[in-house]
Amino acid sequence: MASWPARGNVDYSPPTRPGLQARLSSLDSALSRIVNGGQLEQLKTKAVRSFTVHRPAPSVRRFKRRPRDLLKRASLFESEVSRVMLVDLSSYDLILVNESGGKDSQAMLTHVVGLCDAAGIDRWRIVVVHADLGRVEWRGTRELAELHAKAYGLRFEAVSRSEDLLDQVISRRAALDRAADKLEAEGKPDEAAKKRNAPAWMSMSARYCTSDQKTSQVKKLMTRLVVEHRTRNPGTVFRPVRILNCLGLRKQESPARSKKPEFEVDKSATNGKRHVDRWLPIFGWSTEQVWSKIRQSGLPHHPAYDAGMPRASCVFCIGAGREQLVLAARLHPELAAEYLAVEQRVGHSFKPGLSMARIIELSSAAQVGTQDETA
Ligand code: SF4
Questions:
Q1: Per-residue pLDDT tens for 140-190?
Q2: Of 202, 247, 335, 339, which is best to mutate to test ligand 1, by the most ligand atoms within 8 angstroms of its C-beta?
Q3: What is the pLDDT of the chain when averaged over all its residues?
Q4: Is residue 312 predicted with pLDDT exceeding 70?
Q5: Would you call 126 helix, strand, or coil by DSSP?
Q6: What's the DSSP call for residue 135?
Q7: Bigger pLDDT: 27 or 126?
Q8: 140, 314, 275, 162 alpha-carbon torsion, rounded to 10°
Q9: Domain ranges for the chain
Q10: Cross-strand pairs, 193
Q11: Domain 92-163+204-302 is in which class?
Q12: How far apart are CA 138 and CA 141, in angstroms?
């Protein structure tokens, strides 16, 4: 029996002509496997119907044709095709859309809902998940994400870690100190000193804020959804439940993000009971495209953008620049004070080379400057 190809995804990227032919052949053989799989006529039809072809921005084109016709069409566009991705949306039991309340995930939600509608996918299959970061995130992000989900008639789930981010920084400091004490007792002063000097704060190279506060919590939701899905659909007990996990990351955001794969099997979330693919549906979008999609949707966006912030998730993101952090401290002085208290307690600055104490100082100076100008 021919096997169903890995979650209906075929990707070819080099825009060069010599590479294109090879890519088209590999696309051809993957599509042939789907079409000639033989044993699953109804799946074959479904797969063909719901293929989505992503072409270079700005258009996303969907072909209601056989894959071979689609391939011919792709060949016709040879000169303009730089990247084609096919995602067989209908082959998933559940489509999980991560909505932080920020602009990118908001635009992605609208985009994914549109693609699912076009592919005839029932909305009950789509679940909007918000990782609630509590006091450290912009006020109203959870409510906004819920409002967006409800506007499309989608199920909304909020997940959170029992210990919030600031408490986690304190616990991490304590754990590092315990480890240092142990190493000292074992007569390893150099290693102990390393632990003692290790910063407890998250950083761009130690982003436990994302892995612990967001990713791990979403995985717990996946476990719950799989149990639910299997109870409601006993047919899925004998195979892994297929989940498409959609994230609103864009390559324009940073050089590190631009290297991320647009689609991949999420091995860390996949287990015997579920198969999880991670997809970045707006990976190639520009900021203008994001705002245009939001405008088209008619749904509200977070007011932090109108106040001048370029992002809305954590008020004080470790990835944010000095200006953004100073502005955030002006908008949320009480939260800045809480960060400062943690900074003093753990004995390390919030960001290497930029302490919260300094951010508060700069924000106060800016405030005084503004008052002087208006006096
Ligand atoms: S917004 Fe910034 S600080 Fe908050 S979880 Fe994401 S990367 Fe970490």
A1: 999 999 999 999 999 999 999 999 999 999 999 999 999 999 999 999 999
A2: 202
A3: 81
A4: yes
A5: strand
A6: G
A7: 126
A8: -80
A9: 1-88, 92-163+204-302, 315-367
A10: none
A11: alpha beta
A12: 6
Please tell me the predicted confidence (pLDDT) of residue 271.
95
Provide the pLDDT confidence category of residue 23 given band limits of 50, 70 and 90: low
Q: Is 169 in the pocket of ligand 1 (CB under 6 A)?
A: no
Alpha carbon of 164 to ligand 1 centroid (Å) = 12
This prediction has a pTM of 0.76
How far are the Cα atoms of 63, 211, 369 from residue 109, in angstroms, in the given order?
A: 21, 21, 40
Helical axes 17-35 vs 67-76, angle rounded to 10°: 170
Closest CA to 231 of 272, 268, 273: 273
Any ligand 1 atom below 6 A from CB of 102:
no
The whole-angstrom separation of Cα 14 and Cα 12 is: 7
Q: What is the 3-state secondary structure (H, E, C) of 252-292?
A: HHCHHHHCCCCEEECCCCCECCEEEEEECCCCCCCHHHHHH
